[in-house]
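Input record (one chain):
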Amino acid sequence: MQPLVNIQNLSLKYQQKSVLTDLNWTINCGENWVLTGTSGSGKTSLAKIIAGQQNAVREVKINFNSNSNLPAEVLFVDSWYQFKNLEGVANFYYQQRYTSQQAKDTLTVHAELVGYGKEKGLHLNQVEPILEALNFSSFASSQLIELSSGEHKKLQLVKALWLKPQLLIIDQPYTGLDALSRKNLNVLLDKIAEEGVQLILISNDDELPYAVNRFAEIIDGQLLEIEAFKGTLTVENKSKEIPDFLKSSPIYSSEQIAKMVDVNISYGDKQVLKNINWEIKAGEKWLLQGHNGSGKSTLLSLINGDHPQSYANELYLFGNKRGSGESIWDIKQHIGLISPEFHWYFDASATVWQSIASGFYDTVGLFQQLPYSKSQQVDELIEYFELTENKNELLNHLPLGKQRLVLLARTIIKNPELLILDEPCQGLDQQQTQYFNQLIDELCANGMTVIYVGHFDTQLPKTLTNKLVLSQGKVIENTKAYKKQLVS
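The corresponding structure, as predicted from the sequence alone:
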């Protein structure tokens, strides 16, 4: 039989830089691949070329099986999903997710699936087992704008598993998924592989379906087949010191960072948070965990000032009761924040330098000139994160992993009292993840307060000491002496 995919001498340049050079790849019938490589190596670009979403020098030949009952289609599931409103545009702002009940301008999950089923000629009864396996059935009435990054990932995976194309390519399949969802996803992938779907998984993770039987890595623009997945990489400690302005403890305005007393959040009949009691003191390092949809993002939105229902609850931030006269900007000046959703809505047309500098003012772009001392701090962080050659590039011209490093630098630029790190390492390769977590350990040693959300036990800083676990909007664990006994 002819190979499903045949690529000969493929080359790709982006912004005058060679990404792929004379790359060759043959995917035979029955092969299921994992494609790995460092951030920016060209994995996603190669996937888009195979799916016909990006052009390159030389032709990619796809030979579908005419005898198969599966759709003769290559489906690419991006790691970054951009949904649109009812008018067909994607012009959303960050806080809109929490006020969306006032203006229902996006489709519900059910409506999205109904539309997709009609477009692809699929039956709705076939999608129910997939929704149940990924614990997504309860989101049928949720608007797209209300979903977290992990929930958006699930929606795209549901559609892909429902369609069952002859070739399915998934970029970072496990990003944003809790432990049980990752396990169930692998079961579902094995099932469709048995039915004839061939897989290409772009991943640096070692939790893989049994169906995977080929491994490749992109190095210096070339695709090299490797015998087996390398697993978690060990990164030596960097000799580079953190910038001097981050070596001192933040200046705390209060010993109490946040306190919630019987906090409840509801959208109509749907209760998202139920009687939450939580106190965070200066210098504490918290791990926040829970399954997708457990309420983590909503909980964090109360602390960073973005949720309008905070005024209806007993909530104290940095020593002041919420609603006592402080503005959202008064709150944000104490906080450095990174989350997948914040990345979605950030102004990607700003340069790297401008993006980092905007962290001083908590804006999504730089609208004023920095004094010399602050400009120096930006330059120091750019050098520390090895972004010097990118400092004048637009953020949206960088690979996703480097974009995330830029926003991580923005998060710590003002040495804030509180770091809120909501899955900060999404899009980073293993080296970048370990490098960043080493930095967080150093900052914590200097007295910074941290709330860290992470599903992967192997991708957490060592310094975390306390843990809060949510399930269905309730606190099921509040541990002050957490010592890496992790639950995802």
